[in-house]
Structure formats: C-alpha cells, structure tokens
# Entry
Amino acid sequence: MMQIFMPLNFLGFVYREMKGSLANIEKMFGLLEHEPRVRDCEGAPPLRVNGGEVVFEAVGFGYGPDRRILHDVSFTVPPGHKVAIVGSSGAGKSTLLKLLFRFYNLDSGRILIDGQDISRVTQDSLRKAIGVVPQDTVLFNTSIFENIRYGRIDAGDDEVREAIRLSHLEGFIGQLPQGADTRVGERGLKLSGGEKQRVAIARTLLKRPPIIVFDEATSSLDSQSEQSILEAIAEIARGQTSLVIAHRLSTVVDADTIIVLDQGRVVEQGSHAALLQLGGTYARLWDIQQRERGAVAVPLP
Ligand code: ATP
# Structure
C-alpha cells in the first residue's frame, strides 16, 4: 500500500510546489485572473542557461495599441552581476520584469538570455531559470520548515536549516512556540511583510536559480529588518545574475549597474558613483534621500 501512497503523495507535493512558485510570480505581477497570452513556438527548444547573461535589446512594448509603455529599452546584465532598476511609480519597472518572464510578446526588439531569444524557447524552461522573491510571498498552511522546503522539494533537512540561517530567520524561528515546526497560514501564525520576504529568500536560496528577480517591499521596514533583508539578498545574489526593483536607495548602492527608468525610457545607467558624478536624475533622487537625514531607508519619490 505504501508503494502506491508514496508516489501519489510525492506527486501532490510536486504539484503544490509548482503551483506555489507560479503563484508567487502571478502574485508579484497581479496576473492571477489572466489568460496566457503567449504560446511556445512549434518545436521550441528549452532555454540553456550558461552563466545567465540578460540582454534587453531595443525593447518596445505597450499593453494595448494606444499607449507605449517602454521605448527602445536596452541594457545588458553580465553573468553574475546585480542590476537595480529605479524610477518613479509607473515608469515601467514591473513591466520590464513581466517581459523577462515573457508574460507578453514584445512590440519590437528582443530579450536574450545567454544569447537565446526568450520568445524562441519554451516558457516552462524560461520560468524555471528565474527565481522570484516577491514583495508578498504565498505561504501554505503547513510548518514554516516545510514552507521553506517548497523552494526545492528534494532538499535535505540540513539544507533547509542552512537556508534558514542565511536568510536571517533563525532569531525569528527561535521565538516561535514550536520553532520551525510552527504552522503558518490561515489557521497558524501570521508573518510580517519582512518575515515573509525572508521566507521567500530562503526558498530561493534552496532553489539557486541562475537568474533572480527581487521585488523590494515598498512598505517601510524597521532598519534592523531592512539590514537583515539586504544581507540575505546579498547571499542569494552572490555569483548569480540578479535584477532588483528597488524602491529604496539603500538597496541600490552596491549594485553593479543601476538602470534609471523615466516614462518607459532608460535615461541613465551606471554604478552609484558614476551616476552621482553625472549629476542627473539619479543624483537628484539621491539628494532627496540625503536631505532626509536620520532615515535609513527613504522610499523613492
Ligand atoms: P510602481 O513603482 O508603481 O510599481 P512601475 O514602474 O513598476 O510602477 P509598471 O507597473 O511597469 O510601473 O507600469 C507602467 C505603466 O503601465 C503604468 O502606467 C501602468 O498603469 C501601466 N500598466 C501596468 N500594467 C498594466 C496592464 N496590465 N494593462 C494596462 N496597463 C498597465
């Protein structure tokens, strides 16, 4: 009997895991209610990731024919680099990432991962290559330990414990009545935004995808949570290509490249130091933050 139950149980687990990671992407982009808009090309091969270089090449896009959202967007993220995308609300930051996941087809230009046009590979392989840390992650009605294991269902207990340590969840878990066995979700413990984001980071640490997309929480975090999340992000981003939608400049300072978007156009790109020297849009944003002395993390205006 066990022989029948075990695989069924395992399949159920795999199904929930797949639904879980897709739900995270959908939740990140508010896509739950939508029909798929893109289809795989006939005989499309899987994406082969080798390093994880991401290239946006003259990308133009609008959700409808009447309004262009992105205009001629070009930038390159070399393998293993961290790129931060900044810009005012509505500038097109989330749209860029939705296009990287190929939730929509482009109007013009191309997006390449390791030289392969993402519109020519299977969507399944594309989405498997990209790990997502959303602002508000989906938690299941099970223990916090199993919630983290959803990042990679075959991960051993030691690996889950290591992910907990690296994502700075040990202190939080240590205070729970049943530690990592405490149930979360509807009938269990409620987690704060920062704690949920660290669970998402721990899952991503277990998954170790070659490309990571991080949507920084807009809600203000206390400076200790902010610092521990920054350290946890640095841990998952180590050696991996990462794209961060940054709402706070504190996340941006150590990025290899900062892309400044304004009304769907890349108006500046470079390191923090280079952009300050340029004295343009980014330098103005930075000045605003500097004037807010005493605040560790000031949201971008
Ligand atoms: P924020 O910082 O506020 O999240 P953002 O820079 O991420 O903003 P996007 O979410 O990419 O901006 O939105 C860019 C523009 O595209 C906005 O004007 C927005 O209204 C529009 N937009 C976003 N999603 C859709 C959609 N599904 N259909 C039509 N227009 C959309």
Notes: The pocket of adenosine-5'-triphosphate is lined by residues 63, 69, 87, 89-95 (CB under 6 Å). The first helix runs from residue 2 to 29.
